[in-house]
Design goal:
6-stranded antiparallel β-sheet, Thiol Ester Dehydrase, Chain A, 6 strands, alpha+beta, about 35% strand, elongated
Length: about 130
């Protein structure tokens, strides 16, 4: 298993609501940034997303502590369930080692030319071997 560095996220002023907390919907963007960070390490920067499509079909977020403007969150991504055409990625968002939120995304491999799901790409399976499981 290879070690992939955690994704470091910068909280922007626009991410915060009137109460000074990061808005709940913004966490999905943070998870997306982390997912792309990890995909870069798993399959490389030359992955052809049009040829080897992946569609996000489900997101879940569990909010444990409010994230604030000056916090410096990091997100670690873990391998979740692997199906015939889908994979799950799970997330742990921490600040200074303390857990603030968790999440799960389900991704489906998709052929955009045929407009249908396809079996999980071998490169994705190999990439997932670089992730820890939770």
């Amino acid at each position: 298993m290879h070690s992939i560095p955690k994704a470091k996220i910068q909280v922007r002023f626009a991410d915060c609501d009137v109460m000074g907390h990061v808005n709940n919907a913004v966490y999905l963007s943070y998870f997306e940034m982390a997912r792309m960070h990890y995909f870069h390490y798993m399959v490389g920067g030359q992955w052809d997303w049009k040829k080897n499509g992946i569609i996000l079909v489900k997101n879940e977020v569990t909010y444990l502590k409010p994230l604030l403007l000056h916090d410096e969150p990091e997100i670690e991504v873990f391998a979740g369930k692997i199906g015939r055409t889908s994979v799950e990625m799970t997330y742990e968002l921490t600040v200074n080692g303390k857990l603030y939120a968790t999440g799960v995304s389900k991704l489906v491999c998709f052929d955009f030319n045929k407009q249908e799901t396809v079996p999980v790409y071998a490169e994705i399976l190999e990439g997932f071997s670089k992730l820890q499981t939770k």
